[in-house]
Amino acid sequence: MNKQSIQHSKYILCESPVNAFQEIDRQQNTLEVVTNARRCPSCKSAETIFDGITGEIICTTCGTVVLDRQETPASDINAKNRSGMPSSLVFPDKGLSTIITYSNTDAKGTVLNQEQITTSNKIRYLDKISGNNKNHLRNFKNAFAIMASVSDKLGLTNPVIERAAYYYRKAFDSKLIKGRAIKEMVVASIYASCKEMSVPRTLQEISYAANAEPIFSGRCYRIMSRKLRISPTIIDASSYISKIATNAHISQQTYREAVNMLSVAKKNPICHGKDPKAVAAAVLYASCLKKNEEDISQSKIAAAGDISIVTLRKRLADILKICPEVNYAKTLRKMK
């Protein structure tokens, strides 16, 4: 058994020597063919494959996974996995800062003497206060902490938060943050990111999650969109219909009927320029009328869609013009 087999002995028992081709495959994170002491329970074969990526031992004869979740040897880890975290705009320093460890040893593992330890402590202290004394880093720490809290409360994805951090940094570089509250600017950045990526989140929802004032947040968003030239995009009503149906506890059959009705309504010019959330709520209520769901009322749909009953009735009148069969079902419901 050579050195290569000894290195992997605590993970896989190797008996055959490793040739040059197997060494190249090991360095490229490919499958490594070895002879294992474990036998396949299906075909009783001793020829197995160790996958360093998934940590599985696989039989080469029948393909059965003999053992899974094995520890990957340190020599088989890809080099890119040892390079640390990728850079991100969500971090105040973009994840590119250098951290001085508190271990009092050098690169070779030798313990430092007392004079070197004192010098290292001074360097650590200076590095700590130099990073915290920068105005933009302190601002970014507060802003991104609020942004992470809003992301957890609303369930926003990483690309949305990454785009929101980009807008906040652009606003900071344009000196739009000066004289304005950090919370409201964070809400404006997240709202702009949600509108760009078609995420159905209103300004009131984001303001409530950040404990900010919706009026000031809307003012900050208008200033940001004007200065940074952010083109507002209208979110499709299809993004709201699933959320409203879940909040109102509408059945799956009624929801599918509402989706079909919405696809027809979007082609009609009568729904152009209308609030997509109100159109989605009206289509859902019209679908409830068609499926004769008596426990669903206008107040329940309006509360689930966060709109007023008057708005719901106006959009429902437009939907009834497009779908006359709903009006017929509504008439039969009143007669009963």
Task: Give a written overview of the molecule.
The protein has 336 residues and is mainly alpha-helical. It folds into three domains: 3-76, N-terminal domain of TfIIb, CATH 2.20.25.10; 89-233, Cyclin-like (Cyclin A, domain 1, Orthogonal Bundle); 238-335, Cyclin-like (Cyclin A, domain 1, Orthogonal Bundle), CATH 1.10.472. The protein has helices at 3-7, 20-27, 114-132, 135-154, 158-173, 182-196, 203-210, 214-227, 238-248, 252-265, 276-290, 298-305, 309-322, 324-335, and strands at residues 32-35, 47-51, 56-59, 65-67. A four-stranded antiparallel β-sheet has the order 1-2-3-4. A hairpin with a 5-residue loop joins strand 3 and strand 4 (65-67). It starts with a helix and ends with a helix. The model is unreliable at 1-24, 26-37 and 74-82 (pLDDT under 50).
What's the CATH topology name of the largest domain?
Answer: Cyclin A, domain 1
Radius of gyration from CA coordinates: 30 Å
Fraction in helix: 40-55%
The CATH first-level class of the largest domain comes to: Mainly Alpha
Q: Give the strand tally.
A: 4
Key features of this structure:
flat; N-terminal domain of TfIIb; 53% helix; disordered N terminus; Cyclin A, domain 1; 3 domains; mainly alpha
